[in-house]
Amino acid sequence: MFDGHTALGFCMVLAIILFATKVIGLIFRRLGLPQVLGYIIAGILIGPAIFGDPLGEHGFALIGVQGKPYWCFLYLPDDSTVLSVFSKIGVLLLMFSTGLETNLKELKSTGLTAVLIALAGVFLPLVLGILISLPFGNIGLGTANMYRCVFIGTILTATSVAITVSVLKELGKINTKLGTTIVSAAIIDDVIGIVLLSVVTGIAKAGAGEDLTGFAWFKAQWWGTVIMIIAFFAVAVLAGWGFSKLFKWLDKRWPNTHRIPVFSLAVCFLYSWVAEEVFGVADITGAFFAGVVLSTVHRASAYTDKKVEVNTYAIFAPVFFANIGISSITFVGLNPSILLFAVLAVFMGLIGKIVGCGAVCKAFKYNLRESAIGGVGMMARGEVALIVTATVTSTALGPNALPPEFMIMTVLLILVSSILTPILLKVLYGREKPSAGDGTAVEPVTETVAEEPAQEGANQ
User: Fold this and answer.
1) Residues 72-89: what's their mean pLDDT?
2) What is the greatest pairwise CA distance in the chain?
3) More confident residue, 270 or 253
4) Is the CB of residue 147 less than 8 Å from the CB of residue 141?
5) What is the DSSP letter of 435?
6) What is the DSSP letter of 382?
7) Rounded Cα distance, 372 and 380, in Å
8) pLDDT value of residue 460
9) According to DSSP H, which parts of 312-382 are helical?
10) What is the DSSP letter of 136?
11) Alpha-carbon 284 to chain mean position
12) Which region holds residue 365: left if phi is over 0, alpha if psi is between -120 and 50, else beta?
């Protein structure tokens, strides 16, 4: 009925997206589920995923695509650049905020246990994801598409820090030795996962390169990709040292002023552009490392995160998650084999975290119940899994990109893990006093800090 590509038309598109995501997000919050999952469901409901009929003229969508036969209230062109730009800003801000909330000193203090738990939480789901993908050549995976198989494993490596933190706080266990180790391992897990994402997407882009010369040819070789990734991290650390000094000076001279978050956003977008366009590293990696760099200036990073989070969760993040439901998920004509694979992948993703992380906990003298807590605490998935999936389904990867239909797998993974993690943690903690890891029981710690986990910014 109306063109959503005009300035006012797009304002109406935003109005529908923001209203739908907030209402359904609040419903999910009341159900004890992550609001971001509600945002995706909102996108599914207002888009053509359920009611759009590409084979007839009787389908319906509030927001549809121009030229499709179904009826829609607002239509967008096939290449809706504006909505894509809003979505891109949303994902960059989410990763930037994650970096700002990273505490490097805390990561260093957790020691070898958290690092090995995180490594196991990445390695085993990655391997299991690749193995279960090999028999599914009929849906674009299999040995003929190894890049896609690796992408499936990479998606399964993510962990939701926000869900884990919120449950541990509710139970009063976040300040115990095991609770601190789980949270630190979850953070390290995400860092490793983001680095892994950059490596596999970089190599996938190299594999898709054709008829290139000069610097483009160099970056298109797998060894050139590895060199460029190492170079990016070297440049990011070196430039980060300079930016850290600059922001310490700014924070000392003009503390808690708007110029600090504005300059911080400039650094975020600069890192993102340099990562993607110069070094061939995923842009979300650049945004994340920009946040990590600024997290070393504690007062400035806290103030910046507070300001950025408002805009992120007020408009950009809802658009990003809703756009996943609008553009990447469809139930019309869905291949049953993809649904079967999604169920198997979810099972393997959960088992990989529980077994891998739990085994490391057991090796460090935690008892069986505590080891189970360590594994279950690492199995929740959230926004990082969605961001990784959106990256590996991007057309920028060319023929190696994962088909968008596999977003169903990630949504199902988030839904199942978000429901099971709080339930299982409460059951496991409810049957036994927490242990210090050496068999000595300790009293539960009552959480007195009023600060909420980062994801709770979406609840405001």
Assistant:
1) 74
2) 68
3) 270
4) no
5) B
6) -
7) 14
8) 37
9) 317-327, 336-363, 368-377
10) -
11) 10
12) left
Helix pair angle (177-208, 111-133), 10° resolution: 40
Per-residue pLDDT tens over the stretch 332-391: 667 888 989 999 999 999 999 999 999 999 998 888 988 999 999 898 887 778 888 888
The amino acid that residue 440 corresponds to is T
Task: Give the number of C-alpha atoms closer than 13 A to the C-alpha of residue 75, restricted to the C-beta side.
Answer: 15
287 within 8 A of 92, measured Cβ to Cβ: yes
| Angle (CA) 42 45 50, round 5° | 145
Judged against a pLDDT cut of 70, whether residue 140 lies above it is answered with yes
Q: Is 356 exposed, middle or buried (0-12, 13-18, 19+ CB in 10 A)?
A: buried
The mean per-residue pLDDT over the stretch 34-52 comes to 79
Report how far residue 417's alpha carbon sits from residue 419's, in angstroms, rounded to the nearest whole number: 5
- The DSSP annotation for 285-321 comes to HHHHHHHHHHHTSHHHHHHHHHHHHHHIIIIIHHHHH
Share of the chain above pLDDT 70, in %: 78
Instruction: Tokens for 433, please give them.
Output: 């006093």
pLDDT at 324 over 60: yes
* pLDDT tens readout for residues 142-194: 888 888 999 999 999 988 776 777 677 667 776 677 887 887 888 788 778 87
3-state secondary structure of 3: strand
Separation between Cα atoms, residue 146 and residue 126, nearest integer Å: 13
Query: Considering the entire predicted model, what is its pTM?
Result: 0.71
Dihedral over alpha carbons 423, 428, 434, 437 (to 10 degrees): -110
d(CA 236, CA 249): 20
- Residues 6 or more apart in contact with residue 298 via CB below 8 angstroms: none
Structure letter (DSSP) for residue 1: -
Give the ranges where 209-282 is alpha helix by DSSP (H).
214-220, 222-253, 259-273
**How confident is the model at residue 444, as a pLDDT?**
42
Of 161, 146, 149, which Cα lies nearest the Cα of 194?
A: 161
Residue 443 has what pLDDT? 42
Give residue 15's identity as a one-letter amino acid code: A
| Inter-CA distances, 220 with 210, 211, 236, Å | 8, 10, 21
| Contact indicator for 160, 230 with CB cutoff of 8 Å | no
Q: Using CA atoms, how far apart are residues 76 and 366, in angstroms rounded to an integer?
A: 55
